[in-house]
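Appendix B, record 7
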Amino acid sequence: DASPPNGRPGGRGGGRGGKAGDAPRPCVYLLDETRPEWTPMVRLLRQATVATAGDVEALYRDILDRMGMDRTADLQVLAYYLQHVAGDQFCAHVVPWLVQLVLQTPVHLRGATPLPVLSAGATGHVVVDEFQAVVLLAHCFLCLVPKRFHHTARRKAGVTRSALAGVHRGALKEANFLRLFSAGYTELKTKQQLEKLKCFGAYFTAAWEQYAAAGSPGAPSKLLVSRFAAQDVAPAAVFQQCGAALAPVEIDDAGAIESAAGCLQVDFANANLGGGVLGAGCVQEEIRFAICPGLLLARLLCETLQDHENVKVTGARQFARYTGYADTFEYAGLHQDETETSPLGFAKVCVTAADALNFGSESGRLRPFHQYEQPYMIREMFKAYASFKEHRQEAETGYVPKVVATGKWGCGAFRGDLQLKFVLQLIAASAAGCRRVRFYSYRDPSFAAHITRFMEALDAVQPHVTVARLYAAVLTARAHAPVFSQVLAALGAPTAGLEERAASDITQSTLSGSTHGTLEPSGSLEDGWF
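Structure tokens (predicted):
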């Protein structure tokens, strides 16, 4: 059953009610035919006749008008997909089935509507089964999630202010597919959006075949979305006082994180989960959300991540294969996911969202040289620690992976130093109790070789390097030289072969003009990082 979160302070759980005088509980407001404010939309959906691509597009324009969105949106990507990719089955069977799902939302969710928001600063979780996940994502696909009700939207929908007293207006990002359906700002971005839409179309078609066409699909497995807020510990103390040995590291230069069976798989996340998956974005996080649509539940339910927080999703299966990355990304057909199910009914796949700081934004305040300053190093270590550490709720799934699968987290567009980010993740994983780190270097043999030599040098240090010792060493690193060699020097170890940066590492030219004597306080960093 759809379950509200537990352990929320101040009674901020799920449900629509509460004791008299309580503040309205934050929730995701879903279509409910039993509530009068949804009557106009219910009437529209029930009267809709959908059989062709033109019918589907006309239905969307009516929905957009009723929801107070842009009825004149171009919908070029959606139109192309319906006319040239999806086929008659999708228009005549899959879309009408999705409409019926949302009309019966209270029945399918067994009364657990509206759904609770997993709010910033609170630990909590929501459990749904895979069929209920399809129902929820059908709302997103049909653009029926009213994140914000402006006056025009309320008037058109017949919704009163009092009826929306409990609708969440906090830090939730857009979960509707409208931006994905509309042409991107370049032809290439439009193509990427189409390829992502093919992935989502494959998901909904597979769901229709399983739950509608098959007749008796069997009991669906379950998904857990859990939010962890590490508020009761000083970030620096986690590492300063940790005498644990370093976790062993294995390197995979050819595979991808989503292929790491039995591992905790890291999502190189945006603080707004999913990043640009429903828009023009098409890198690691967006691709993972497109091929594993169950991850979109995290975007639907979770507020923006804060520095001390993490969200994990357990049980989100993969439905699409793909080739390429970013500009070359393409849908490559339906994926038959054969992931084993735990005794408690969850697919044994757990994705953890770790949002790194962006040191490369032209419009932002942070620059590449800032990442070598202690508050930012500690922030990144603690973010990784919170992301790798076991959540209490994970035990309820029967699947708690102890090996973390990660890679070039926070590098690329965020301009992270590969060597620095590797060391920070190694410290975090070791402190979090991970048995091993599987590092995906993404066809970068030069950097893989640097990691191997670095780990061999660490292993040779006597006495053995602990988390606390490596933490103290990395805080001495600066931008003027490779981090691996600086860390080894701080530990009194030889640095032969590590004095030069790997070709793919951050280059010295990106650090020109940097200063390290002072730190401008970051608005994203809270007091107490030292």
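Remarks on this record: The longest strand covers residues 222-229. The first helix runs from residue 39 to 47.
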